[in-house]
Each structure stands twice: as structure tokens, then as C-alpha cells.
Amino acid sequence: MVYTDLPYDAETKAGFARALFDHLDRGTTDLAPEVLEIDARVYSDPALAVRERADLFGHVPIIAAHGSELPNRNDFLVAQLPNNEVVLVRQADGQVRGFVNTCRHRGARLVNEDSGSRRFFSCRYHGWSYAGDGSLRAIADEPTFGTVDKSCLGLKEVPVEERHGFVWVVDSAAGDRKIDIGEWLGAEFEASLSALEMDRYTCYVAGNFDVDINWKVLMDAFLDGYHIAYAHTGTVAPYFYNNLQTWQPMGRHGRMVSARKSIDKVRGQDPETAEIDRHITVAHFLMPNMSVLRQPDHLEVLNFVPAPGTATGTRMQMRILTREPAVTDEQKARWDKNWNILMAVLRDEDLVVNEGLQKAVSNQDIGPLYFGRNEIANQHFHRWMAAALDDPRHWG
């Protein structure tokens, strides 16, 4: 089955329909109380970038992979995070553990492949070998090296938890760091994510794109339904209503529902019974740097990972998740088409605009920037970021 029903109860779906029908009838959208003014330096300030990596990304959980990318024991995947490059390894007990991708001997990069399957990892520089659980297995020519305690020289480990189909990581090997996805998400948001059953999906394709754009610029683009008619004329603009969304904050995070123009087929129906499942996109925004878009037949997962050591570099990660693995040529052609559409929207349209934005905000005399009342999700993001950095360890 390609299309699936919206995974929410009748009352929730009727609420989506009522709100969207009302906005369509009145030409409105959900609104924040007032216009928000921000300092353009949030997109370029090196000192702020250092604080974000130390005080935010070094403590809070972010997504590094989908569990289906590590299906079997001994499977590994290398993920670049804001502070560390980590190796995720599926253990014999089925759990995933994560290790900083650096040999403890002289600091060489331990794993050079992006993914694969191994029982142990051997450093290409001097041959030190590590088991999949991160323990130091062997020191080459050990009698000549000198006396060291191998039990203290295992790979540096970062906290990992697998939940809702994803592998989450706290990007720090400091001994006091813990991970608790349930607490991070909060009960309401976790219930909404759980309904998507993302652990039943499989990753059809994943792509990494390294760009010289601040990660918050990219996050802003996906929180914003105001630009569709202008930035996406060549792709999705004919299919989606511009500047028309509902926004529901859920603790730190939030859920946005957007209307496809095909919703006009059911607009005259009773919202309590209107079948809107194929006519809306439900987006979950996970603070600080991720979005999950539920399309009628698949999920699109976007992760905006700040690059280490720079205020503007970002690794943009894109994934398409499908309910069933693609095994036939027809299935592969369908998801390849969706991937190409996503590439066209992001790479050929969003990135072009956002590269220009990043250059423009470096101008000296631009003054503050403004988020309108209609950019309510963006306002939530920027207010949350400011509160999180003002009150570290509470995170908004």
C-alpha cells in the first residue's frame, strides 16, 4: 500500500480540516501576536556559533540516522555532527552505540568508509584495532610500544538512543552527558510523532550536501510557508497554497499543517467527515535542527547540521522514508521521482535563494531583520533559540 491514512484520530483530523477550510475561506493563516525583530548576526556571528555547539549541541539530542540504515549486527554508519564525526555501530544485542571517529593513539581518522559492516575497526596509520563495542582490541607491536592500560584507551563514546525509528545522539563524549528522548520531546509531541510509526518505515535514500550557509537559514526555510509562491515556481508552487498553515506549538517543538491545492476537492464537505488525508502535509519540527514532513505516500526527513569550526557551514541531510522497501522497478521509479522533486526544491531553488541570503546578511548596513505574524513557526524557532541559550541546561 503506497498511500496511508492520516495516523490521527477523527477529532484531530476534523480539527485540521476545520482550521484549513476556515483559512481558505477567509484568506488567512495562523498568526503570532506581533512582528518579531532579530539581529542578522544570528546567521554569521562566530562567537554565537561556538556557543551553539558547546551549550546546545553538546547537550541536547539530535538525529544522526534512521535505524533502517543499520539493519544488522556489526553494521556501521559514519555521521558528521556539529562537534564530532561519530561512528554508529549496531551491537550484538541489537542496540546502537556511537563513538568519536578518532583513533586514541595519534588521532588518525579511524573509519574512512561512509557505511558498511565490520566486526572490528583497524587504524590505517599504525594498525591499532578496536572492537565494535569501542574497546581497544590490539596495539600493533605492543611489546615495543610501552606499557599502557588498554581498558582506558577505548574509543570515546557519545550517548545514543534509538526511538521512533531514529538513532539519536548527544554530540559530546563528556562523562556527565545523558540522553532521554522522552523527556526531550515531551508527552504531547512524542504522541504525535509516535502516531507516524516511523520505526515501520525504511530509508530509501539519504543524501548529504555541504553548503556555506548557516544552519538556521536552512531551518528557517523549512519553517516558512510564506515563500512557496515565489521561490518554488518551477516545482511545488502549483500544488500548494502559499502562506496558509496551521501551527501548534508542543513544548519545545511544534507541528504545522499545510494545504495542497487538491484540498479544494473536499472543501465543501463537512469537516467532521471530509477525507483530507491526501490533501495536506503534516510537518513536525524538532528543535533545534530537524523537520519530518509527512506526505500522503512517504516521509521526508531534513536535518541541518552545523559544520564544526565555522559559523556558516552546514551539512544538509535529506532522507526519503517509505512504508515498504522498494524492490520492484515501479517502486524504485516512484521514489526516484520523489527524490528528484525534493532535490529540485532544495538544491535548485531553496539553496540558490539561501546562498544569496547568507551573502547579503554579511553586509554592514542592513539593520535588523523581521519575521511577520504569518511566520509564526519561524518566530517560535528564534524565540526558543534565544531562550535556550539564555538559560542553558533548560533549553526553553
Automatic annotation (TrEMBL):
Cofactor(s) this protein cannot do without: Fe cation
SUPFAM superfamilies, per the entry: Bet v1-like, ISP domain
Protein keywords: 2Fe-2S, Iron, Iron-sulfur, Metal-binding, Oxidoreductase
Oxidoreductase keyword on record: yes
Keyword Plastid found: no
Domain Rieske: 62-169
GO molecular function: 2 iron, 2 sulfur cluster binding; iron ion binding; monooxygenase activity; oxidoreductase activity, acting on paired donors, with incorporation or reduction of molecular oxygen
Name of the molecule in the record: Rieske domain-containing protein
